Amino acid sequence: MKCEQAREQLPDYLADGLDPEERSELEEHFAGCASCREEAAAWTRLGELTAEEPSPALRARFEAMLEAYEEGLGRRAREQRTSGGSAVPGWLRGWWPQRPALQFACSVGFLIVGLGAGHLLTARGAADGQLSQLREEVHNMREMVALSLMQQQSASERLRGVNWSYRVDRPDSEVLAALLRTVKYDPSVDVRLAAADALRQFSQYPAVRQGLVEALGRQKSPLVQIALIDLLVDIRDRRAAGALRQLGADTSLEYVVRERVEQGLEKLGMGEKSWAR
Fold it and tell me: CA–CA separation, 267 vs 274, rounded Å?
């Protein structure tokens, strides 16, 4: 196996989507190729990465520091009022040198401390930037795996790809388009049902709402029809009324679906029973 083939199979390997023979062949390649083995290990670690949460101790320290800071501000304001608004705060006058030369030396010292603190903050900012980049790579990897699986011939693999979309919190247009294609055209009823349910989490996107309306008119399975009707009604998309009426006008429509159409129109405030008879 070549490295290029190994990289193509890597998403399926990470999603546990390879058959035993393919998985064995790929792992055999990893054993003899350090580069591919390290790449697979890196993606595995990225997939296991979780967002860091502040510990209770850190929160307690922060609140204590905030309380001390507010107390210090109040004390300084009182001292300034007492001292008549002196240029040097009262808490500082006690040890601030009176000779100009010493004052200059202290100022230089404060400048050095400030530069050092700035360097530390810059280093922390760089670390935060690296963490953000790492999370973005995880996000892109999850999208890649979901898209790859949804294009497989096996219905179980396509279903796995739909389930992977739940891990994508900020889907791009390609992921949304893949889910909409799945709910419209996938030959498996189970996969179409799963795709409809997955699109619920992205129903705030106008393209998804419009795609769901279009998908309803293409369905022949009563199960998928009912699932889409319920979804469109739940997200309160009034544009769905036309699609519901058109579906209800189909004389071959199952009674249970026709009944759900009528209920959906009533919930949308557009109930019309004349066509249902």
Answer: 16
Both tokens assigned to 208: 């998804």
For CA atoms 199, 200, 203, 205, give the dihedral sign.
negative
Q: 174 to each of 113, 118, 178, 180, how far by Cα in Å?
A: 50, 42, 6, 10
**Identity of the highest mean pLDDT range in 108-122, 140-154, 200-214, 239-253:** 200-214
Residue with tokens 């790809």: 161
Pick from 212, 238, 214, 239: nearest CA to 227: 212
pLDDT (average), residues 149-157: 90
Helix axes of 3-14 and 100-150: crossing angle, nearest 10 degrees:
90
How far apart are the C-alpha atoms of 145 and 143, rounded to whole Å?
6
CB-CB contact of 171 with 165 (8 Å): yes
- Residue pointed to by tokens 């040890």: 95
